[in-house]
Amino acid sequence: MTDAPLWITEADVAATMSLPDAIGALERVLAMEAGGGAANLPKTHLMVAANDAMHAIGAAVAGAGICGTKTWVNVGGRSQTVLILFSLEDGRLRAVVEATALGQMRTAAMTGVGTARLAPEDARCLALIGTGKQAFPSAAACAAVRGIEEVRVHSRRADARAALAARIEDELGLRAVPSASVEEAVADAPIVTAITNATEPFLSAAMLAHGAHLNAMGAIVPVRVEFAQDVFERCDVIAVDTVDGVRALSAEFRARFGGGDAGWETVRPISRLIAEDARRPAGCDLTLFKAVGMGMSDLALGIEILARAEAEGLGTPVPERVRVPPRLR
Hints:
Elements (H helix, E strand, L loop, with lengths): L5 E3 L1 H7 L2 H16 L3 E10 L5 E9 L4 E9 L7 E6 L5 E6 L1 H19 L6 E5 L5 H11 L4 E5 L3 H15 L2 E4 L3 H5 L4 E4 L18 E4 L18 E6 L2 H7 L1 H7 L9 E3 H6 L10 E5 L4 H18 L3 E2 L12
Parallel strand pairs: 1-6, 7-8, 7-10, 8-9, 10-11, 11-14, 12-13, 12-14
Antiparallel strand pairs: 1-15, 2-3, 3-4, 4-5, 5-6
C-alpha cells in the first residue's frame, strides 16, 4: 500500500476488473453486510429537472477498512461520476476513482447477483427492456450467471433496439432479436430485465410467464415506474438491494407497501439471501429483484479495484496535500 492517494482512471478500472470479477466482489461485501461488517449511507437525490437527478450514495465496509461516497448528476442521460475512498483507520484519502465504467459494472453485477440467486437454473432466454447505457452490461451479467442463448430486446425506438441486438450478437455471441413490443419480448421468457427511465408502468403480471424472474433495475427515483402493482400479487420471493433505499425511492414498492412497516417483512435484502446461500424455491411462480443503487455496491467494486491498482502499479498519485489555514478576513 502506498502513502499517496491514487487517482484511478476509467482505463485503470477497465484494466483491473471484469464483470465476473465484479459479481464476485459484490457477493463478498454483501455477505459482510449480512454479518454486520458493512453499512450503507442512505441514498439522497435532488431532481434538477423533470427527469434529471443529482445523486449521492456511500457506505462503510469495516471488514475492508474503507468507507466512501459516490456522486454524480444525470442530465439528459449523460453523467460523469466519481467514487471517493477513505481509510477507516486514520481517515486519510485512499483514492478518487473515475466511476462511470465502475457504475455500469456495479449495476450489471447487481443484476447478475439477483439473477444468480433467483432466476431458473435452466433459463436460456432473456427479455431485455431498455436500450440505454446500462442495458448491454445487464445482458452480459445475466449471460455470466445463466446459459443464455437468446436475448429479446425492446425499447421505444426501433433503431436503438436493432443496434443493441447487433451489439449483443457481435460482442457476446448470443442470438439477439429486436422485439416490436414489450409483450413480444417477454412472452414465455424465463428472465426479464427492465432497465429504463419510464415514468409510467409498461409491464403487467399478465405479460409474464409462470416461473419467470424479473429484474427491475431502472426506476431509481420516485418519479419513475416500470411495472404494474399486479406483479407483486404473483411473487413468491421479493428481494431488493437495500430495503431502506427501496422504501425511500421506489414508486412501485411505496404504492404496494406504504409508509408503515406492515408488509415490508416480506421484502428481503439480497445480502440475507447470500448469507443463507438461498436460491430460487422449487415450483414458485414469479420472483422479483429490485435495485435502486446503494453505496455498498460501489464500495465493493472500488475496494477491489484499489487493491488491484496498488498491486499492479496503476493509478496516478495525487499531489501531497498541504494544509493551509482559511482566510478569515
